[in-house]
Amino acid sequence: MYEQAEPVRSPFSGPDSRQSSNPPPQPRPVRQSGSRGRVRHGNGASDKQRPREDQDTSSHTYENAEEAKRYATSADRAYPGGASGRCGVCSFLRARRSCQAAGIAVLLGLVAVGLAPLTFSNKQEISQLSTTVDALKRDLDNERNRAAALEQRLHEIEKTLPSCPEGYTIGRGICYKACNTLKTFSEADATCRVDGGTLAMPRDADTNDFLVSLYKPVNDHTSFWFGLHDQREEGRFEWVDGSALGPYNSWAPKEPNDAGSGEDCAVYSAKLKHKWNDQPCHFQLYFICQAAPGNSCIFAIP
Ligand code: MMA
Ligand code: CA
């Protein structure tokens, strides 16, 4: 069995109680490589017999201790907690933090310098837009005022213009009225003349469309007389003012056909899709009058 080795003693430690006199204390023995027993030490004879390797090992131990001390000192410097290197580490860390802070400050400064023109530019644009919006608002107000003034002026002018007889509606500068009383063709025309007008004479498509839209609300499933006939000569239609029909007409298909015992007066026919038809003039039907604005007998009476 191995003997228990003596504890390692530092060359700086005090004299061993067992070795209070020379020779000076030796480093602790180490196991011989390949030896079966323990090498005694502590006496000169044994030490002299110690192999060189053992002495080297002892020297290493001493150097290691020195190195450990140096290491400890450097470790103290490198890591906080070490006694002697703490201030150095703190300084290092402070320096690092300062560097980082300085770097961040520089970056922020650069960003601020870069953003400053943009901010300035945006402020300028916002200011310009705000000015434009204000100008547009002023323009809008002015236009509203102008429109209100024009509307007022229009109402004043309308009051001075000749108006249609009561119940008539103006279309293309002429007054028209759809009457829902039953009359023969001649009775109807006579009634219109009381208002200073005649049966309606639609000489163009626009006027025709206007008349259809006028009488439909009065009645859209019957016929309305208007001022066209061929009573003087069969097949030669003329307006009630004696003028010829002209190029425009709105006859329904296969009309005028002078059906039955004769048909010489014209109507708007709901059953023929509001197209023209010729009918016997003695039929009692609704009718449409026309009158010039301000030409009513109502206004003509002193
Ligand atoms: C009725 C009458 C005529 C018209 C035909 C169309 C039967 O007669 O309104 O004037 O031409 O219908 O079918
Ligand atoms: Ca007919």
Q: What do these coordinates show?
A:
Mean pLDDT is 75; it is low at 1-87 and 298-302. The chain contains six helices and eight strands, in the order H-H-H-E-E-H-E-H-E-E-E-E-E-H. It is an alpha+beta fold and 302 residues long. The longest helix has 75 residues, at 86-160. A hairpin with a 5-residue loop joins strand 6 and strand 7. Strands 1, 2, 3, 4, 5, 6, 7 and 8 form an eight-stranded mixed sheet that branches. It is 44% helix and 14% strand. It binds methyl alpha-D-mannopyranoside and calcium ion (CA). Methyl alpha-D-mannopyranoside is lined by residues 255, 257, 259, 263, 277-279.
Question: Quick gist of this model?
Answer:
44% of the residues lie in helices and 14% in strands. By secondary structure, the chain is an alpha+beta fold.
Q: Main attributes?
A:
302 residues; alpha+beta; Mannose-Binding Protein A, Chain A; eight-stranded mixed sheet; disordered N terminus; binds methyl alpha-D-mannopyranoside; carbohydrate binding; transmembrane; transmembrane helix
The major pleated sheet works out as: 8 strands, mixed
CATH fold description of the largest domain: Mannose-Binding Protein A, Chain A
Alpha-beta content class? alpha+beta
| CATH architecture heading of the largest domain | Roll
> What are the distinct ligands in this entry?
methyl alpha-D-mannopyranoside, calcium ion
Radius of gyration: 64 Å
The proportion of residues in beta strands is 5-15%
The CATH superfamily of the largest domain is Mannose-Binding Protein A, subunit A
The SSE string, one letter per element, is HHHEEHEHEEEEEH
The parts where pLDDT drops under 50 for at least 5 residues are 1-87, 298-302
How far the N terminus sits from the C terminus, by CA atoms, comes to 160 Å
CATH class of the largest domain: Alpha Beta
